[in-house]
Amino acid sequence: MNLLENIREGLRSIAGNRLRTVLTSLIIAIGITSLVGILTAIDGIQNSVDSSFAGLGANTFNISVRQEFGRFGGRATNVNKPIDYRQAISFKRRFPYGATISIATTVSGTAQVKYGSKKTNPNIRVIGIDDTYLTVKGYKLQSGRNFSTNDLNKSLNVAIIGNELVSTLFPKNTNPLNREIRVLGSQYKIIGTLDKKGSLTGAGDDRILLVPLDNGRALAGARTLSFEITASATDLANQEIAMEEARGVMRLIRRDPLGKPDSFEIERADALAKNVGQITGYLRIGGFGIGFITLLGAAIALMNIMLVSVTERTREIGIRKSLGATPKRIREQFLIEAIVICIMGGIGGIVLGLGIGNIIALVISQGRGGFVVPWAWMGLGIIVCVGVGLFSGIYPAYKASRLDPIEALRYE
User: Fold this and answer.
1) What pLDDT is recorded for position 378?
2) Measured between alpha carbons, how far is 166 from 207 in angstroms, rounded to an integer?
3) HSE-up (13 A, CA, CB side) for residue 178
4) How far apart are CA 231 and CA 268, in angstroms?
5) Shortest CA distance to 104 belongs to which of 243, 220, 272?
6) Average pLDDT of each block of 10 consecutive residues along the chain (412 residues)?
7) What is the pLDDT of residue 7?
8) Residue 67's closest CA among 59, 77, 78?
């Protein structure tokens, strides 16, 4: 009996026990689904993160007040003073690297926007911006225009709204441009709407309302605002130098004492994406561990089924040995059966895992991620299937090959 004939015999045996084969393959499919599904979902989320930060550019960095809390009067308070308007404008004038610099401030993070009888939840961020904010932050206009010099200089009551506000306040196919909305007790005319941006952190980059910078300052009234500076350097190769220069300029403006830490922090725009990449790396390890444990249980179940199969086919094994089949060929037959069953289950598990993983990624990324086909994880799934088949089939195959042909023929 040669190897090819042994393969045919193994396949005939699988075809003759279809129900058992389907149930056994289903066990393996569940394990592979968990492995490939989790890893596919993580890849999809990572792709969405990468695409979210792609528009910012690797040469962009942010300057904001350092969050360092101390206790004053029995409550925690930031010990560093906020970056005020004068400091932000001074930095923009004094920074020597010719970068595109945007200044913005969050006026409110819990505003409610109204249009007629419709209103949003009180979770809208109202941000005062300048005319470079959209470009530097990677926002794209869906319709309308950016703030003009006239809008900024005269602090006009005009606004650019996020995608979520459009869908919440206005009926479908309604053009929101030039419509009047109310926020924080003031009336604004919409001059632009933003493309959907999405947010993995739940911060809601689509739940924003942008107003001219000085208009936002007026909205805040007597409240103290902290301004954020975003700079887009012209040359990526000199970005570290530009960041250090920005640090020196900002320390002078903020009058930070020599030998004391910065009262502000500078962070590259792609730093968060890198941090998320590290987190997803740990998630991959965790996902692989969960999938491995599931597959281990499936392998034990398959081994048990193969042992039962050896017992059921004892007489058949005796006949084969009496006709000249060697222990090697008997082992090959049972190993082939185990591997084929695992591969069948693995293919089904990969298809399911691919679909489930992409659905999870799309839900978490709010539909921004594309369809991911992780060829590496799919290849790993097939290799794992073969490994599980070998692990599960080797002992039953060895047991079958050790049967005494005379005793096997007597088995009823």
Assistant:
1) 77
2) 9
3) 1
4) 10
5) 220
6) 64 72 79 80 72 60 76 55 90 82 91 90 92 86 92 92 90 89 92 78 74 92 88 70 86 88 81 66 77 77 77 75 76 78 82 82 66 76 78 76 69 56
7) 67
8) 78
Cα–Cα dist 131/150, whole Å:
11
Max CA separation in the chain (angstroms)? 103
**Residue 201 has what pLDDT?**
47
Please count the other Cβ atoms lying within 10 Å of the Cβ belonging to residue 4.
Answer: 8
- Residue 272: its pLDDT value, please? 60
Burial of 244 (0-12, 13-18, 19+ CB in 10 A): exposed
What per-residue confidence (pLDDT) applies to 380? 76
Token pair 């308007």 is at which residue? 85
**Tokens 């997803």, located at residue:** 280
Show the tokens assigned to 91.
């930095």
Cα–Cα distances in angstroms (integers) from residue 15 to residues 47, 303, 341, 389, in the given order: 42, 19, 11, 17
Tell me the C-alpha distance between 275 and 286, whole Å.
Answer: 17
What letter would DSSP give residue 262? Answer: P
Q: Is 40 helix (H, G, I), strand (E, B) or coil?
A: helix
Pairwise CA distance, residues 331 & 326, whole Å: 9
State the residue for tokens 């130098």: 241
Residue 106 CA to residue 125 CA, distance in Å, equals 7
Residues 64, 67, 72: CA angle, nearest 5 degrees: 135
Q: What is the pTM of this model?
A: 0.61
Helical axes 271-312 vs 375-401, angle rounded to 10°: 20
Map residue 373 onto helix, strand or coil: coil
Closest CA to 134 of 192, 73, 92: 192
- Burial environment of residue 391 by CB neighbours within 10 A (0 to 12, 13 to 18, 19 or more): middle
Residues 6+ apart with CB under 8 A from 163: 142, 193, 194, 195, 196, 197, 206
